[in-house]
Amino acid sequence: MEDVLDRFLRYVRIDTQSEENDRHPSTGKQFVLAGLLAEELKAMGASEVTLDEEFCYVYAVIPSNLPAGRIAPCVGFLAHMDTSPAVSGAGVNPRIVRFTGEDVDLGGDGRYILSLRDFPHMKSLVGEELVVTDGTTLLGADDKAGVAEIMTMAETLLTHPEIPHGKLCLCFTPDEEVGSGTAKIDLHRFAADFGYTVDGGPLGGLEYENFNAASARLTVHGRSIHPGSAKNTMRNALLMAMEFQSLLPAAQDPMYTEGYEGFYHLCALNGDVETAQAEYILRDHDKAKFNEKKAFFRACAEFLDRKYGPGTCETEIRDSYYNMKELILPRMEIVDKAMEAMEELGIKPLVSPIRGGTDGAMLTHMGVPCPNLCTGGGNCHGRFEYASVPQMRKVAELLVKIAEKHAQP
Ligand SMILES: [Zn+2]
């Protein structure tokens, strides 16, 4: 049996950074890790191991070892192979430190200091062994910690036939970080009744609520004229776009919201006197409030139309993804079994709403309910990313326990 840490260190050294484009996968280098995982799954004796040569997904099955006649659901486990475009994932040079709470000089040159002052939440990690970067790249614990944990679970179950479990479907996805982790997934190959994404944070994390999300574009049409003779004639599209922003509830901005509070986020504002364009994202966990936000966005544009004349504003709103909660609630045993597994292992469940989306939310709306589980990683998408070694080991154990729980009559 290989330790989850050794797997993790092997996977993070492989550059799998994804990028924003229209290709699937977005970057060819993700195939390197995908190919390795497929080989490793075959070597450990997993069944139906498939590497999708076109779209870069890895699928495998761990067959049920229950006595004939005993039926259990088919449980899925997923993690994503790519890392965020935010910071380079090339030449990751992981190292292990025992975190004492003192500053950690990542590169040894004083440039990047991991400190409790900047990351106070890391106080809970004092005394743990952490994998950190050398400051030049991200680590890739998001989500190679999840990948390593699922692989470790698979090897544990394949080498311990005495642990009873039903059929398990495994899937490693590309391009989660650029929003298309499930775009080309094959639900015939990943034929789970429900599943878990292993793509969360601290040990105990269990998430089954996420935002409802839409992107919204405002286009404002002005009228340009020489500023010297502009009185009562010019209509400045930029100023009207700013006025539009001022009509939105000021407190409902990402800077002032947390927990279940939704927001309007102005991501980009471009233009000139003649035309201006503002790009927004709208988010809310609550479906009714989400719909109200979209309606209010349109109403603000209509108000400016009344004020400045018809045709001044155009809006275009597109839904991106939805909260998985309403589809998980009728299947709460999926969440309950994970909580029971945690409690049996002495892990305190930390249930919280995700302020974003997950591949699991997409899958839930494709018919495969998928809450999200912890990985033991943190500070993701940056140089200060880390993975806790004891937490990764515990998560690997947790996955085994969850598989076992679902096989109990
Ligand atoms: Zn992730």
Give me the secondary-structure topology.
Elements: H1 4-12, H2 30-44, E1 47-51, E2 58-62, E3 75-80, E4 95-98, E5 104-105, E6 113-114, E7 129-132, H3 141-159, E8 168-173, E9 194-198, E10 205-207, E11 212-221, H4 237-247, E12 263-271, E13 275-284, H5 287-308, E14 313-321, H6 325-328, H7 333-344, E15 350-351, H8 359-365, E16 372-373, E17 377-378, E18 386-388, H9 389-407
Parallel strand pairs: 3-8, 3-9, 9-16, 10-15
Antiparallel strand pairs: 1-2, 2-8, 4-7, 5-6, 7-18, 10-16, 11-13, 11-14, 12-13, 17-18
Helix pairs in contact: 1-3, 3-9, 7-9
This protein binds zinc ion.
Task: Explain what the structure shows.
The structure is a single chain. With 409 residues, this protein is of the alpha+beta class. It is built from nine helices and 18 strands. It has helices spanning 4-12, 30-44, 141-159, 237-247, 287-308, 325-328, 333-344, 359-365, 389-407; strands spanning 47-51, 58-62, 75-80, 95-98, 104-105, 113-114, 129-132, 168-173, 194-198, 205-207, 212-221, 263-271, 275-284, 313-321, 350-351, 372-373, 377-378, 386-388. Strands 1-2-8-3-9-16-10-15 form an eight-stranded mixed sheet, with helices on both faces. A four-stranded antiparallel sheet has the order 4-7-18-17. A hairpin with a 3-residue loop joins β12 and β13. α1 packs across α3, α3 (141-159) crosses α9 and α7 (333-344) crosses α9. The model has no long low-confidence stretch (mean pLDDT 97). It binds zinc ion. Residues 80, 142-143, 176, 199 line the site of zinc ion.
